[in-house]
Write a structure and sequence with these properties.
Mean pLDDT: 93
Shape: globular
Low-confidence stretches: none
Largest sheet: 7 strands, mixed
Distance between the termini: 31 Å
């Protein structure tokens, strides 16, 4: 792969200083690997969700969006196996007390071994016999491996006991599965159809890190697409292409994207096929953005077994009942946003000046248009004639501070596609200057034609 011109730390420092993300609760010293989205990041996140919704819901005829609860009946997670099996092998260095995932530690020091199929006892034996070293202090003294539950526990009600135990959801998908019957009935949906959601999930990761790439609190955009049992692999291939089309549509470079098909030993026992779409992050290398999985009828079958509810589908064409099979395209919203920000970052040499510019898709940029009155004396007129004209149709920022050149640079650095300058000539000719971010070309446009002109630009 062609290595990025810019280091990951250079990009993330820019994101922090410009207002995309901040360290969480920073005034109290922060909390490890936890980030808040600032005004720019929050805006861009909202736009990305809307573009995703448009692509996967509004432009389709058979996908239904729901918003399920974060806290669910704990039997949900017993049915899916999360309570019994959703854990990581935890190991601690006895000397410096640094904590690691044992499988990750072994993979880094012995990449030739098939760690994913090792038992806990086999990993313990290997750690002891091979004298694995702690990456932090270099010592080779570790605690025995113990399983670490990844779900966050909490309680409901006024007392904390076993009866009040609930979990923060570790994935959003189960909120879809438990609502399969409700959506199918109320929307009169016929197979094939999908249910999707956008929402927060929580995992008590042992080793989060790399900025917002891996965090304990994250947001997912997931679809569960229900099909006839004999059509699942057909739709698996359809969704592979559809998802790659989407990540290219939002502006990620094709040569920094790839499919990674899971090997047979990586697949969950109920899965027929799984593919990840990966992006080549600067300094980090390939990282998963999303996965497309053929989950067969596992989830609905488990929920039928534990809930005793009938989740079968009555096929109106054959009059047969069966449990639908499922294809799951699952996006990590935070990772997708991080990839877009890394992909768009650039530094351009302009002779006597260097400008930082974010070449963001114009529908995803935090602000679509910046409005500049050339002088503070023109601020009221620019607000009345331009800002109020556009504010109901576009995401705007109004900036009066500094020279026009400095204001252009500020907007370039956060990815604003267009800047509008209201100058002293505007008072007489009722026109403004529109400057385009990437080419820096300027065009004079009548204020009376401004809304239509900009609307056409955003339709391109």
């Amino acid at each position: 792969m062609p290595e990025s011109k810019y280091k990951f730390e250079t990009i993330t420092n820019h994101l922090i200083t410009s207002g995309f993300m901040y360290p969480s609760s920073q005034i109290y010293g922060g909390i490890s690997n936890t980030w808040d989205y600032g005004p720019l990041g929050a805006n861009m996140k909202t736009h990305l969700k809307e573009v995703w919704r448009r692509h996967f819901v509004l432009e389709k005829m058979n996908i239904f969006l729901i918003d399920p609860a974060i806290i669910m009946n704990p039997k949900t997670w017993e049915a899916t196996g999360h309570v019994a099996n959703f854990s990581d092998p935890l190991i601690d260095c006895k000397y410096c007390h640094t904590r690691y995932r044992a499988d990750d530690l072994i993979k880094k020091q012995h990449p030739e071994l098939d760690v994913d199929n090792m038992t806990k006892d086999e990993m313990n034996k290997l750690v002891e016999e091979e004298k694995l070293s702690c990456p932090n202090c270099g010592k080779s003294t570790f605690t025995p491996i113990r399983q670490f539950q990844l779900m966050f526990k909490t309680s409901i009600g006024v007392t904390e006991d076993k009866a009040s135990l609930v979990y923060l959801r570790p994935e959003t998908a189960q909120g879809i599965f438990v609502n399969f019957k409700n959506v199918q009935r109320t929307q009169r949906a016929k197979l094939p159809f999908g249910i999707c959601d956008i929402g927060k999930a929580f995992r008590n990761e042992i080793t989060p890190g790399n900025f917002t790439f891996r965090t304990r609190e994250f947001e997912q955009m997931e679809i569960e697409f229900f099909t006839k049992p004999d059509q699942d692999l057909e739709y698996f291939n359809y969704w592979k292409k559809e998802c790659l089309d989407f990540v290219e549509r939002i502006g990620l470079r094709k040569d920094y994207l790839r499919y990674r098909d899971h090997e047979p030993n990586e697949l969950a026992f109920y899965s027929k096929a799984t593919t990840d779409i990966e992006y080549y992050f600067p300094s980090l290398g390939w990282g998963e953005l999303m996965g497309i999985a053929s989950r067969t009828n596992y989830d609905l079958s488990r929920h039928m077994e534990y809930s005793k509810e009938d989740l079968t589908y009555l096929d109106p064409e054959t009059n047969q009942r069966y449990i639908p099979h499922v294809i799951e395209p699952s996006f990590g919203l935070d990772r997708l946003l991080l990839a877009l920000l890394c992909d768009s970052y650039d530094e351009e040499n302009l002779g006597n000046d260097t400008r930082i510019v974010m070449h963001l898709n114009k529908h995803l940029a935090p602000y679509q248009i910046a409005i500049f009155p050339l002088s503070n004396k023109l601020a009221n007129q620019a607000q009345e004639e331009v800002y109020k004209l556009l504010c109901k149709n576009f995401e705007l920022i109004f900036d009066t501070t500094g020279s026009i050149g400095k204001r252009y640079r500020r907007q370039d650095a956060i990815g604003t596609p267009y800047c509008i300058t209201y100058d002293f000539d505007s008072v007489n000719d009722n026109s403004v200057t529109i400057r385009e971010r990437d080419s820096m070309q300027q065009t004079r446009v009548k204020i009376s034609e401004l809304k239509d002109y900009l609307t056409k630009l955003f339709e391109e």
